[in-house]
Specification:
Structural class: mainly alpha
CATH architecture: Orthogonal Bundle
Strand content: under 5%
Number of domains: 1
Largest sheet: none
Shape: elongated
Length: 188
């Protein structure tokens, strides 16, 4: 059986290569060299480059989802609790940001990996709606969170270090407005 800690270290190494250089820079040789293992040792955990790419994407999507679930569980039940957690985790400076950046970069250029990301995105949207937020509001909040993440990852925000908390505050206010409303929600 593969050692989870060594496998995890290899995933982290691969993710770092993707974020620091590019998805194209991710080779078995580069990961083995940087991780200080033989290529055979790497192949024991990941029998191919495709398996390594899948491992990176799956691990970081699972890590993000677990962080959102943990954050939601730590807060009182309320309309939009899961979506609030999505915003808090998605707009945080958490250690998981570089890994998720690597997962997104890898998925963007690979149809099979992109399908994995799409499946997660669909599940997350459904989860937000299950928490009592209408589909339109969930889409606006999730797309804004994701867009901020992507822009941040690409360095597109300019010199406004205070934007993150203000964006988070505005998105939480939008969720609050939905939760406070007794009016039927139009999903059209």
């Amino acid at each position: 059986m593969a050692h989870p800690s060594k496998r995890r270290a290899l995933i982290r190494t691969a993710g770092a290569i993707v974020v620091e250089h590019s998805p194209e820079a991710l080779t078995l040789d580069a990961v083995a060299q940087r991780a200080g293992v033989s290529k055979g040792g790497l192949l024991y955990h990941f029998p191919s480059k495709a398996a390594l790419q899948e491992g990176v994407v799956d691990a970081y999507l699972e890590e993000f989802e677990a962080a959102v679930e943990a954050d939601a569980a730590a807060h009182a039940a309320a309309t939009g609790r899961w979506l609030r957690a999505y915003v808090r985790v998605g707009l945080s400076d958490a250690d998981l940001r570089p890994g998720l950046d690597a997962a997104y970069l890898l998925a963007a250029g690979h149809p099979t990996l992109l399908e994995r990301l799409r499946a997660c995105s669909t599940r997350w949207s459904e989860r937000a709606i299950e928490d009592g937020v209408d589909a339109t509001t969930a889409a606006v909040v999730m797309h804004a969170t994701d867009g901020f993440w992507f822009a941040d990852a690409l360095g597109l925000h300019g010199a406004d270090p205070g934007a993150r908390p203000r964006v988070q505050e505005r998105l939480m206010a939008l969720i609050d407005a939905v939760g406070a409303s007794d009016a039927p929600v139009d999903d059209a």
